[in-house]
Design brief:
Radius of gyration: 17 Å
Order of helices and strands: EHEEHHHHHEEH
CATH topology: CBS-domain
Mean pLDDT: 85
CATH architecture: Roll
Number of domains: 1
Strand order of the largest sheet: 1-5-4
Shape: globular
Low-confidence stretches: none
Structural class: alpha+beta
Number of helices: 7
Strand content: 15-25%
Largest sheet: 3 strands, antiparallel
Number of strands: 5
Amino acid sequence: MTAEPLTVVPDATVRSAIDLLREKGIQHLPVVNHAGRLVGILTDRDLRHAALVPALAEYLNWEHRRLKALRVRDVMTWTVVTTDPEVTVVQAGWAMFQRRIGSLPVVEGGRLVGILTEHDVLQALGKGDAIDPDRFVW
C-alpha cells in the first residue's frame, strides 16, 4: 500500500486534478473533505466519463461558464469501497477483482491512511514467485 497518498478536495478543479494525476503518474486520487475524511475517489475512468460532459452540455444547452467551473465533486465516484490495514493482500485483491475496481483506499478510524492499487497487489503476490510462461495462453 502507499501510505499517506496524494489527495484532493471536492472543490478542486477537474483541471488541477488531471494535472496532478499526470504529473505523479497515478490513476486513483482519494477525495477528502477539509476534516481529512474520505468522501470519494477520482479515477482515470471518472475523467474519461467526464470527457463526455461538453457533448452533453451542448445537448442540455448549458452555458460555457458552467463547464469551466467543473469541480472534482461533479465527476468523482462518491461510493467508495474501502479496506482497513489489517486485511490481507489476497482478501483485498479478491475484493478488487470481484468489484472490478483498481484501488482500495485504506481507512483506519475514519481517516485515510493509505491506498492499495492493483499494482501493489500484483507486486506483493509476485514477490519470490517465479513466473512460469507455460501457465499463460498466448
